[in-house]
Amino acid sequence: MTKRNIVQLLTQLINAYQNIRTERQEIAIQFPPKDEEVSLLEELELFTVNLRGYASQIQSTGQIVNQAQTIEQLQAMQVLNIPQIGSFYFGTNGNYEQIKSYIRTLDYLRLLLLEYLQFQSD
Question: Residue 122 — very low, low, confident or very high, per pLDDT cuts 50/70/90?
Fold first, then answer.
């Protein structure tokens, strides 16, 4: 059941990513990186790529290589603890709701992946 939810959420995220193109373009202009800092969109991309990679592995093989290490990484990867993402999420009241929904969905996928992997290791 959790695997099916992961696959559905992965598909939903891929579609949602296309739908937030306009907001991503606005964010690129409104929230440029400071000095040598990674931009908000780059942080979001890194988070997305990691989670989609794990979800794709589960979709295709039903497992993840280095499961214990992946569980540790997923526990540490809290999207709103990433400074640029957290300050954006909580500091833009009423704006960029599609991106905020995307961020919540990403975190939900992270939690589903964690649940799936922890169940597999028991």
Answer: low
| Token pair listed for 78 | 């809290």
Q: Which of 43, 30, 10 lies closest to 92, judged by CA?
A: 30
DSSP the chain: -HHHHHHHHHHHHHHHHHHTHHHHHHHHHHSPPPTTPPPHHHHHHHHHHHHHHHHHHHHHHSS-TTHHHHHHHHHH--GGGSHHHHHHHHHSTTS-HHHHHHHHHHHHHHHHHHHHHHHHH-
- Single-letter amino acid code for the residue at 23: E
Interval 39-84: pLDDT, tens: 999 999 999 999 999 999 999 998 898 999 999 999 999 999 999 9
Which residues fall within 8 angstroms of residue 51, CB to CB, at 6 or more apart? 13, 77, 106, 109, 110, 113
CA angle in degrees (0–180, nearest 5) for 87-88-94: 120
Contact partners, residue 74, CB within 8 Å, separation at least 6: 54, 110, 113, 114, 117
